[in-house]
């Protein structure tokens, strides 16, 4: 025996190489792009055979001046998952979860599309050995027009089973942990406390399907979480993608986004307008919190 190893014994098998993207390799705000894909007639014909949808609209002629057939909508969606695999992002996916897809404009045979995927959620499960990665997808044709848009999530294996919730809380948008961390920052924010110095109410934020609330009284955040005793005075809402772009992007363009109607408001619209300065300060603090988390991830 030498150092616990039998001389001449075969070497122990090596662990398989750790390639591809594990859960830890995804962070909210990451944007993935890749090479364009052209939907040629052979691909569309093969999909017609596999799906059984051999309608003339897809196999013979379409409603365009040159009569090009229409690509099946689900083929554009399926193309995303192939693109996702080709980029090496699927190797550690354990299961597909929910998928929601919109067909906004036609794709015709011969069109070339590009996929852009933004990570809008990356939350480790309570088991710690994996996590849920939410992805927002925009599909554009060769002219830059958005033809499809979707949201899909997957369960992804983690490289190691560790509790890193505290490290990720800055970008765990709309969770109670994130709301509490943001509430602490708002209490220390001069612009926010000044903007709410005479206010008594509750600000609700809807991020995708999730809502968190901040009970504010005269410049202080008294409570924050999923619910407050009297409910929100108003709720400011937008898609996951809009919030992620706002909170992780290069500038606070909240006002510009409201002018483009990217946000909706439910509840007391007058109080919402009164709190515009407070909301800008809130976004500033949420961006700072997300930025601190991003630095920890790198």
Task: Report what the structure shows.
- The chain is α+β, with helices and mostly antiparallel strands.
- It has two domains: 23-163, Thiol Ester Dehydrase, Chain A; 169-297, SCP2 sterol-binding domain (Nonspecific Lipid-transfer Protein, Chain A, 2-Layer Sandwich).
- Helix content is 32%, strand content 28%.
- It is built from ten helices and eleven strands.
- The chain has helices spanning 41-51, 56-59, 73-86, 165-168, 176-187, 190-195, 240-248, 254-259, 269-274, 276-297; strands spanning 31-33, 37-38, 93-103, 112-124, 130-140, 146-157, 200-207, 210-217, 220-225, 234-238, 264-267.
- The strands form two sheets. Strands 1, 2, 3, 4, 5 and 6 form a six-stranded antiparallel beta sheet that branches. Strands 9-8-7-10-11 form a five-stranded mixed beta sheet.
- Strand 5 and strand 6 form a beta hairpin.
- It is globular, with a radius of gyration of 24 Å.
- 35% of the residues are buried.
At a glance:
The protein is of the alpha+beta class and 298 residues long.
CATH architecture of the largest domain: Roll
- Within the CATH hierarchy, at the fold level, what is the topology of the largest domain? Thiol Ester Dehydrase, Chain A
- Average pLDDT, rounded to a whole number, is 91
Q: What CATH first level of the largest domain would be assigned? A: Alpha Beta
Query: CATH H-level name of the largest domain... which superfamily?
Result: Hotdog Thioesterase
Set out the fold topology:
Layout: E1 31-33, E2 37-38, H1 41-51, H2 56-59, H3 73-86, E3 93-103, E4 112-124, E5 130-140, E6 146-157, H4 165-168, H5 176-187, H6 190-195, E7 200-207, E8 210-217, E9 220-225, E10 234-238, H7 240-248, H8 254-259, E11 264-267, H9 269-274, H10 276-297
Parallel strand pairs: 7-10
Antiparallel strand pairs: 1-4, 2-4, 3-6, 4-5, 5-6, 7-8, 8-9, 10-11
Helix pairs in contact: 5-10
């Amino acid at each position: 025996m030498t150092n616990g190893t039998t001389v001449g014994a075969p070497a122990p098998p090596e662990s398989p190489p750790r390639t591809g993207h594990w859960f830890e390799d995804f962070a909210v705000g990451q944007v993935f792009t890749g090479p364009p894909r052209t939907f040629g007639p052979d691909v569309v014909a093969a999909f017609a055979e596999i799906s059984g949808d051999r309608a003339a609209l897809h196999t013979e002629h379409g409603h365009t001046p040159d009569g090009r057939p229409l690509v099946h909508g689900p083929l554009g969606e399926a193309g995303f998952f192939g693109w996702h695999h080709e980029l090496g992002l699927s190797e550690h996916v354990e299961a597909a979860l929910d998928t929601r897809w919109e067909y906004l404009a036609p794709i015709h045979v011969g069109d070339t599309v590009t996929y852009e995927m933004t990570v809008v959620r990356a939350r480790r499960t309570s088991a710690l050995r994996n996590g849920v990665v939410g992805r927002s997808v925009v599909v554009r044709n060769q002219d830059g027009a958005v033809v499809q848009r979707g949201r899909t999530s997957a369960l992804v294996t983690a490289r190691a089973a560790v509790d890193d919730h505290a490290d990720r809380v800055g970008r765990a948008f709309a969770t109670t942990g994130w709301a509490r961390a943001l509430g602490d920052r708002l209490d220390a924010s001069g612009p926010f406390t000044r903007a709410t110095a005479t206010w008594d109410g509750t600000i609700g934020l809807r991020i995708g399907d999730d809502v968190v609330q901040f009970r504010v009284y005269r410049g202080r955040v008294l409570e924050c979480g999923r619910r407050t005793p009297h409910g929100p005075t108003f709720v400011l809402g937008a898609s996951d993608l809009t919030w992620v772009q706002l909170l992780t992007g290069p500038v606070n363009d909240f006002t510009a986004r409201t002018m483009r109607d990217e946000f909706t408001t439910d509840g007391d619209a007058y109080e919402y307008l009164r709190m515009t300065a407070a909301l800008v300060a809130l976004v500033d603090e949420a961006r700072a919190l997300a930025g601190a988390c991003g630095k920890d991830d790198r």
